[in-house]
Amino acid sequence: MRLTASGVFLFALSLVALTACGDEVTKVTQVTEVKQVPITMVSSEKDLPDCGEDINGSFVITKDKQKVFVCYSEKWYTLNAVDGSSEGKAGADGKNGTNGTNGKNGTNGKDGSDGEDGVSCMGVAFESGDSTGFKIVCGTDTLGVILNGKDGVDGADGNNGRHGLVPGLAKKLAKRMKRGINSMAFYSPGESFKGFNDEEMVSDWGYDESSIRNKLRKSDFKMIADKGFDHIRLVVQWDVHFVGDSSKCNIDPEYMKQVRWAVENTNAAGMIAVVDEHNLVFEMKPGVDFKGNGYTYAQVAPCEKAIYRQIIEEMKDVSPDSFVVELPNEPSVDAFITAEQWNNLVDSLIQIIHGVDPARVIIVGSRNYYSRDYLSELNLDNSDGLLMASFHYYEPYSFTMNCGANTALKFKDGKNVWDDTCGTELWEGTKTQMMTIYNDFEVAAQWSKTHGDIPIYLGEFGVREFVRDTTSSEKWLGAVVQIADHFGFATAVFSFDSDTHLYHIKKDKWDTYKLRALFDTKDKFVIADRPDLDTVSKTVLLEDFGEDFPISRLSSELGNVEKWEFSSNCKDDPDCKVVVTSNESGTNIESTTLASVTTENGHTDDGLYMKFVADAPKGVNPYFMLQVNFVPYTGRSPTYLDFSDMKAVSFYAKGQGRIRVVLLTAYSDSIATAEGSDWNAGFNVEYALNDDWTQYVLWSDALIPEKNSVLEKKGGEWDKAKDRVYKIVIKQGVDVVSEEKSIVEWYLDDVTIYGMDLQNFQ
User: Does domain 169-519 have CATH number 3.40.50.720?
Assistant: First the structure.
């Protein structure tokens, strides 16, 4: 946001080797591609969780007998010699180490109970000479390694040891982080921070009356956990707490200690801690407009690297199950940092963090203030499953954040004041409003699906205090968390304090309607069951961009000549520059025929290729679109078709920017006419493209009015319009606006309608 474990055992074994099932330990001289694994503690063997695929390779130690178990192929195996000496040659006091001198006749292996399926598990020591650790082998599979602490010789506590890596840990944590809350106590605490305080942390950032400051007290952590929250996202500003030469970016040790205090208290209350740098270093200096502030990437990048090196060195001993580090919050746009620079910085910071702490889960957001649409810019290597991707959501902004024509509250005589219209907008939770959130979240879910199922973290969403209708706030918050839950996103509401607070510090009181929305919402959101497209018997191919194009494939099948048309509002405006190239060689479409937009590089055989470079002046919102009628006009009027049976429209696409698919109807045209609008808006779904061919599915129940149209303002619904449809339009997304240079690139192929066949169009 922009503003103007319990149950976990930290374990670093001093043993060089552990054996099980009577296996003899042999040392190895080279270990490749090993994964480090942490050990979790349970009370006794009967408390072991089910050994399923989701925890394969996990380690558990039992508190009562100090036995170590490994989950392998849906069965728990025990590692013996727990009480052996640091050399692992014999049992130190004989416990669990009978006949352990030569390691061949351990008691657990005599009856073969652990080896009935031919699998045994053992620890194989590194041949490093310094007892750095051992790898765990079950059968022929290496499941991971356990590294000893630097001071862990002869059973010391191993505090300086590295945690073991659990592949896929980010997914497991995302499930545990289902409902979180942000805190602004560490945001901009400049002059108010006098040194470490074990009782509370107070920011100098005020959010209500001048006497109230964002804060976290030691007692607040348990209070937050008791309300049902699973994690706290700690919003931290580091660059106001550098000591010495500021160019070295050395963090005040007392301030770092205070952040550590918050992490430990979060963990002690049974919650996961997320530490977020809020925002890119130097970006919040006075006068910053978030489009650049005089600092260059060359200045920012080294400082960010220094910050994260200090953070991870301080936090490396905190269990990976209890603490997640987040990279800089909400990087802006090209004027401050480009996509290439952001990806370079992200890669560098991940390397720094994992170089010190290879097991740590890291949260990464996108540019343009964590926009879901910019996730497609990220180049992430998540081969170890330790990354989460984050986006933030405050839409519609006019409801959640704005105040009439103002973008912030007015502060007068020590109080926030607003005019009569401020904060009066309602959010009623209509089907269209709910599906708008659903479609927005599906952008992130689709990106995750095409990028190895990287878990998604909705790190911020919330409603400012001046929204007067608490019922609207409750409905919006409830809709957001329910739809996030539907997609399996972890969530963190904004916030405990600040001007979106759920808790009133001065009144020592929670907003019960917000808590109810998060944990026990009244209005239940249910998405209709959607069939597998392969099971839909009726289909019709609208377009494959073959030899008949620009005559549509559907028209060819029906024996008529309805053609695709291209149009742009910039064609005759010399100040509105839209360069449209029709193929990879860069031919301008305005000097060629529409047929030239075909390309051999389609999804299957030929496809469409178009690239738009839009640079429009103030007041001109450029558009460019392809459109075709489903059936011929009769005279000067369209022929309407009943689309009630349509299940979905599917197409394959790749590229950059956004693409919008719109269906025009008599219903929507009549609303525009009645309101005197020259925009015959339709029902649409919008998609963010990426570099890989992806099948996009526009489900009929997801169709909503185009944004900022009269149809939207009047609450238009697809169910009222679906029986009189006449045209399909493919156009640019709403992100192409005046005064910003935009590049949109489409590869498009195989547009198919499901639930209808040729008879529906005759």
Answer: no
> Closest Cα to residue 728, out of 656, 655, 646?
646
CA 658 to chain CA centroid, nearest Å: 19
Q: What are the b/e assignments for 51-71, b being 16+ CB within 10 Å?
A: beeebbbbbbbbeeeebbbbb
| Architecture per CATH, 533-761 | Sandwich (2.60)
Mean pLDDT score, 346-364: 97
Q: How many helices (H) and strands (E) does the chain have?
A: 13, 34
Chain segment 14-68, per-residue pLDDT in tens: 222 333 333 333 344 443 333 444 566 677 888 788 887 667 777 787 867 668 8
Taking only the tens place, the pLDDT of each residue in 157-206 is 445 567 888 999 999 999 999 999 999 999 877 777 889 999 999 988 76
Mean pLDDT, to the nearest integer, of 500-509? 90
Enter the tokens of residue 169: 């840990």
CB 597 within 8 A of CB 583: yes
SS3 120: coil
Distance CA 681, CA 677 (A): 9
How far apart (Å, rounded) are the C-alpha atoms in residues 475 and 523?
7
Which stretch, 86-95, 119-128, 147-156, 642-651, has highest mean pLDDT? 642-651
CA nearest 130: which of 144, 145, 150?
A: 150
Which residues, 6 or more positions from 244, have their beta carbon under 8 angstroms from its beta carbon? Answer: 250
Measured between alpha carbons, how far is 83 from 66 in angstroms, rounded to an integer?
9
DSSP state of 238: -
How many whole angstroms separate alpha carbon 227 and alpha carbon 398? 29
Reduced to 3 states (helix: H, G, I; strand: E, B; else coil), residue 257 is: helix
List the end-to-end C-alpha distance of the chain, in Å, as a whole number: 52
Which H or E run contains 439? helix 431-449
DSSP state, residue 709 = S
Amino acid, single-letter form, for residue 137: V
192 to 202, 205, 219: CA distances (angstroms): 7, 9, 20
What does the domain layout of the chain look like in residue ranges? 39-155, 169-519, 533-761
User: Please, what is the average pLDDT of the chain?
Assistant: 81
Report CA 202 to chain centroid distance, whole Å: 29
> What's the gap between Cα 348 and its chain centre?
20
Q: Compute the distance between CA of residue 717 and CA of residue 722 in angstroms, rounded to an integer.
A: 9
Cα–Cα distance between 169 and 354 in angstroms, integer?
A: 14
**Does 5 or 227 have the greater pLDDT score?**
227
- CA distances, 477 to each of 375, 463, 637 (Å): 23, 8, 44
Q: What is the pLDDT of residue 140?
A: 59
Q: How far is CA 465 from CA 212, 392, 479, 504, in A?
A: 14, 18, 18, 11
Q: Is the dihedral of CA 341, 345, 346, 347 positive or negative?
A: positive
Residue 363 φ then ψ, to 5°: -100, 135
The per-residue pLDDT for 127 is 47
Q: What is the mean pLDDT of residues 734-762?
A: 89
